[in-house]
């Protein structure tokens, strides 16, 4: 049976009550806490750094999934690992040496992943699969919450799913396939059928008063999708 995971993005949480928001969304069923780091350089927005990550760590009883939208990445990889990140993903365009930065994530004790923007080609993954624990496919352009899912992403999700299934058959190792941007109750099943196993959702969850109701509705959609 396929195991699906839901990763609420605290980008859409109430920033004045972040610790409480993390606690509440974990009680509502979050499997990971997705932490969007933006530097106003790689993306045109500015969020939070390692100090906020460290402050939230005691509230995060599930893995802290750090999505770096920063350039360059290496110094911040080390800082976020020290701040309590469990998973660190970054964009290949944001570092000169992708293979070296991936090694740095693992050497710092975290799971490593690459993030592909909507226009970034899948072949960038091919020579570093052994160094990846997760792949994050952006289903919007990075930088802001609350954007609409780009429908063309479904083709790319299927393409990466095929690549990962082939890799798992050869290596016996499974790499998780996560999607990020515009994921809602009404499209999560279609995205799961295309091959994603982990779903980042910000505004869909934090935009509603009852986080559990949204996460439960997402899980129902996912359960129905895997029976089809
Ligand atoms: C966008 C971020 C996303 C964002 C998703 O750059 O990487 O994680 O929070 O937000 P929604 O779910 O609202 O599209
Ligand atoms: Zn993200």
From TrEMBL:
A divalent metal cation binds at residues 34, 36, 67, 180. Gene3D superfamilies: Aldolase class I (3.20.20.70). The active site is at residues 36, 180. One of its GO terms (biological process) is pentose catabolic process. Keywords: Calvin cycle, Carbohydrate metabolism, Cobalt, Isomerase, Manganese, Metal-binding, Zinc. Belongs to the ribulose-phosphate 3-epimerase family. PANTHER family: RIBULOSE-5-PHOSPHATE-3-EPIMERASE (PTHR11749). This is Ribulose-phosphate 3-epimerase.
């Amino acid at each position: 049976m396929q195991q699906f995971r839901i990763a609420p993005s605290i980008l859409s949480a109430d920033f004045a009550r972040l610790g409480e928001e993390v606690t509440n969304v974990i009680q509502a069923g979050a499997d990971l806490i997705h932490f969007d780091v933006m530097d106003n350089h790689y993306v045109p927005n500015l969020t939070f750094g390692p100090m906020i990550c460290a402050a939230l760590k005691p509230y995060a009883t599930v893995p802290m999934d750090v999505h770096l939208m920063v350039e360059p990445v290496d110094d911040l990889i080390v800082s976020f690992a020290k701040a309590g990140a469990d998973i660190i993903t970054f964009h290949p365009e944001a570092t000169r040496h992708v293979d070296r930065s991936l090694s740095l994530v693992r050497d710092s004790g975290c799971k490593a992943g690459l993030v592909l923007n909507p226009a970034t080609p899948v072949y960038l993954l091919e020579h570093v699969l052994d160094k990846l624990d997760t792949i994050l496919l952006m289903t919007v352009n990075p930088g802001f919450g609350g954007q609409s899912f780009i429908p063309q992403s479904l083709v790319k999700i299927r393409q990466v799913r095929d690549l990962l299934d082939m890799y798992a058959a050869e290596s016996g190792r499974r790499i998780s396939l996560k999607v990020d941007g515009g994921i809602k109750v009404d499209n999560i099943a279609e995205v799961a059928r295309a091959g994603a196993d982990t779903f980042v959702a910000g505004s869909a969850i934090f935009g509603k008063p009852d986080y559990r109701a949204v996460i439960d509705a997402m899980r129902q959609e996912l359960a129905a999708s895997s029976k089809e």
